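Honest question from a wet-lab person: if I give you the sequences of every part of a complex, can you actually get the arrangement of the whole thing, not just the pieces? Trying it with mine:
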Amino acid sequence: MALPKGVQAVAPAVPAVFTRATLADREAALGRLLLAPAALYVVVLVGIPFVLAILLSFSGARSGSLAFDWVGLRHFRAIIADPQFLLTLRNTLIFTVASQVLVMILATTAANILEAAFVGKRAVRMLLLLPWAVPVSLATMAWAWIFDSTFSVINWTLRALGIFQGWIYWLGDPELAMLAIIIIHVWRMFPFATVILLAGMTAIPLEIREAAVIDGASFWRRLFQVNLPLLLPVVTVAVLFGVVFTSTDLSVVYLLTRGGPYNSTHVLSSLAFQRGILGGDLGEGAAIALFLLPVLVFAAILLLRMARRAEVGG
Amino acid sequence: MRERRLVVRVVKRAALYLAALGITLLAVFPFYWMFVTAFKEDNDLYVGATVRTHIPWIFNEPPTLEHFHYLLRETAYLAWVRNTAVVGAAVVAITLLLAVPAGYALARLTGRWGERLGIAIFLTYLVPPTLLFIPFSRVVAVLGLQNSLWALVLVYPTFTIPFCTWLLMGFFRSIPRDIEEQAMIDGYSRLGAMRKVVLPLAISGLLTAAFFSFTLVMQDFVYALTFISSVGKMTVSLGIPVALFRDVFNWGAMMAAALITSVPIAIVYNLFIDRFIAGLTAGAVKG
Amino acid sequence: MGYVETRNLHKHFGDVRAVDGVNLDVSEGELLVLLGPSGCGKTTLMRMIAGLEAPTAGEIYIAGQRVDEGVPPRARGIAMVFQSYALYPHKTAYRNIAFPLEAAGQPPAMVKERVSGGARMFGLERLLARFPRQLSGGERQRVALARAVVRDPKVFLFDEPLSNLDAQLRAIARYELKEFQRQIGTTTVYVTHDQVEAMGLGDRIAVMEKGKVRQIGTPQDVYENPADTFVATFLGSPPMNLVEHDEATLFGFRPEHLLPRVAFPAEAPVLPYHLRVRQVEHLGASRLIYGYLEEETRSDQPVIADLPVTIPLPIAEQQVYEFAVPRRAMRYFDRRTGLRRDGAA
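Yes, you can. This is the full assembly:
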């Protein structure tokens, strides 16, 4: 690494245009300018419709006209008294809770199984992502075919395996239809949740896990006292997203049952669509859809708190 | 004694593989079923499930391409593909145009309040289409965009922009600060440094954002269902479930459509999922 | 006026005073080292000089021109080498070195000539087509230096550029860096937390703690005549021994000055002590003796003696020996403020 004599060259003059600070240098202003278009788009096209949704729920607006007349709490009083609506509320709750619980159980199990390194792990991960990657409407149609009233391949398989000889009329029976919807939600989400959990698990430093093993902790103790707590942020995010996407889903219910049989499987979104868009009663539709808000607000608060904790503690 | 331990280990390993296989099958069998249906002759397909002797899981008759022919020639499928491509391209362009500077600003230029704003922008992603579709139907009516693909181009960025801004923020953060500062010392303004040094290094991030924007567009069903009514203007996600059957149910064609739409997405999705997960877990675990 | 000068420079982050009133005066051609523990403000200070942080208060001058208001980094005539070297990963070594020249709009022929010159200076000719990931740590450092040199800046700013090198390489790199700076003659400000590096490199050292400059002086100066207890214990390894003399005074002496009484001539002006030895470490070129002075008011103050192997006196643990410190090596510090005093109170 020998250093030969330095080369003395004539210093190039710094061009005059360089010496002044321009807008491109002023970081505070630049930051605002770069952020503005996106922020504006979101505020205008999400914020305003959001407010509009609330306003519409107090109006007698109908599609097909641009009228907007104030009706106060009429819609809310009507839907709360409507047993159909209460059933819908119950369905939304049941679908969301049942599918998320099942997703978490399945995903934790699957993540623990798949954590062990084995041949074909990459391929397995790719296959596991398929249910999530595929558009939800197409996946639902595939399941509609699987649950078909005459040709259901599940029914055939259960018969062939000798497990069940009767006929499962999936989409024709209210309870079975609910089960079918839950199955689809779980099928879509648990592989994705598994992949996220797996990624979270590999992010736990190896030393911590090895230390637990050396300390003599059994598998269950390790799971509940070391792995799961450290995975909690990832798990929470996965569950929150699952809850939000399941409770606000329209596609699965609409495409599988249209809310039937006999309006027994409606969820808030599908009922809002039926009454608001198909029925033309925008005010009532908006009022129904607003009941989705508590879940969203709750999710938002939780996520914010997690973000703040990450900011402070991390 | 040692043999017994070996046997236990082999059994455990076998059980592990079996369980992994089971899980994978559970996730994948509907696609297999999709695949089989798409290539089966009708009389192999429409056999009641009470018939024991006919195994639906295999090809009892030789596979056929007739559903694909039907799909491509006698339905509006190709029109839907074209519509989806056009809308997708437009939305990806709009999204990148707005989300790239926003993501950069949030990653570098805004400090405390920027952090909060970033989270706020991401939270708007949680506002679901099924809450907004009713007011949007009014907005679309006011703008005269009913039954127009432009309505979709207008509305889709409301979820692609928040998502991609958050994604790109993570990518820009992962580029070391001192490279930008070095570029500023070497002769560029902050904006110039972004252009010359940061963007080239963020190409993988830009591609990921573009891809996920497109998949988000492909996923949407609610807005398409709300705004589009004529068959020729539908997107793939809307047309296949809603407009493929004219008089008679044609599951073969439907599964064929679902198959050729799903497979490319799935393949490319896999390429990008690593980056996506890295961004997600880095934020959640490390903070 | 110095070539690089800061006047009453402050940088506050909310309640935290990262830089708390610093007056710096770097002469032309000098290599000034900013030395201090992490968090002392040395890097923040350098970044303000570079223009990467805006001062909360105070002024900065480079070559007589005021730069702290509205003069962006690219216009200050500086070149900076970061700890990570900040090489552009998507560009070859050649393009890295050429980058500032191209940014200035230099004609291609001129760029080629100067890049070749810089490459020759650091022995990089055969590495120019490589990407940073294909270069070793030492090679990357040289590319970073070449990039800094080709634009002929007025000031070099170095932010701990040697800390990423292996210990073996560091001493050699230090020597070569000093040689290089001497030949080039460019004013240099150098940040480090390594006091050996500071002593070896600096024409002068500015020792910083908690945002303030404790002392500026030549290496010899800050080592032998520290301005306060912080400087006294930060420089030197092992650090200066500080012993409580009474309520108001600490006295200090460096380990190399605490030697067995017999090592001094009989009439030498020394202060004698009895050292109870706790532990002896054999380090090759010297022995470190950890012990307690029997004479002092609080016998639980440990001291260290640095005994070169040229003094082969046998030293055993748990024994008491006669040691001494030359009077002229003794320093006195105010116990409350830590500042240096002349003589005991």
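Two things worth pointing out. The CA atoms of residues 57 and 109 of chain B lie 57 Å apart. The mean pLDDT of chain B is 86.
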